[in-house]
Amino acid sequence: MRSLFLFLLLLNILYALWQLQSGELVPDRELDVSALPVPDSLVESSMISSHPASLSGADTSPAALCIRLGVFADREEAAQLLQRLLALDVTAEVVADEIVSSSDYWLVMSVMGGASGALAKLSSLQERGIDSFVITEGPLAGNISLGVFSREDYAAARQAQLQSDGYDVRIERVEKLRSQYSVQVAPEARRLVGSELLLKLREDFPAMQHQYQSCAPVANGRNIP
């Protein structure tokens, strides 16, 4: 009886080995990869790669926008508008901008010897009946001008005459600047400047326009009374 039991046990073992070799033996459960522990370093690396923008430190917020009201050729008119807004608790300030209004064309002769040399040359030119003057301001100061023209072709014609007489002159374009003024409403006060208020302001300032643009630094004319 004992021999029979051992025989059957050996037979089962052999049968099991045969099934394992033939690939028919299926494990009771498959390994669940998701259940395996993941190192903390890998978790942190995954979070960084999935959210690169949040850790870059770059500020992508849009630039603040102000309302510009104007423009005015007269500073006093801009100041009056500013006072109206300040009375309504609207934070604002006057902004002055320099713009090119026109250009002149100067005939310029370079002079050596400083102020004394310039005066001596000026005296010589005027003795010959040539209209001229010493330039005292700007980047051309210390030189002599032999004429100021509103058009470049007029300046070129006079330059040709002077050069034929032996005078070395060049044409310099000089921009004429003028100031214009507007009132800049701060971003935090934009909500206070609605269409109804704009209509009321245009009753007293008919030429006033408004536009949204990036806030400009105010160097001059800040809070003009």
SSE topology:
Elements: H1 2-22, H2 40-50, H3 52-56, E1 65-72, H4 75-87, E2 92-109, H5 114-127, E3 133-134, E4 144-149, H6 152-164, E5 170-185, H7 195-204, E6 209-214
Antiparallel strand pairs: 1-5, 1-6, 2-4, 2-5, 3-4
Structure summarized in a few sentences:
The chain is an alpha+beta fold and 225 residues long. The chain has helices spanning 2-22, 40-50, 52-56, 75-87, 114-127, 152-164, 195-204, and strands at 65-72, 92-109, 133-134, 144-149, 170-185, 209-214. Helices cover 39% and strands 25% of the residues.
3D architecture notes:
Helix content is 39%, strand content 25%. It is of the alpha+beta class and 225 residues long. It has a six-stranded antiparallel beta sheet. The longest helix has 21 residues, at 2-22. The radius of gyration is 43 Å and the shape is elongated. The termini are far apart. Residues 25-36, 41-58 and 220-225 have low confidence and may be disordered.
Helix proportion range: 25-40%
Strand order of the largest sheet: 3-4-2-5-1-6
Report the span from N to C terminus: 121 Å
What is the molecular shape? Answer: elongated
From N to C, what is the helix and strand string? HHHEHEHEEHEHE
Descriptive labels:
single chain, alpha+beta, six-stranded antiparallel beta sheet, 6 strands, disordered C terminus
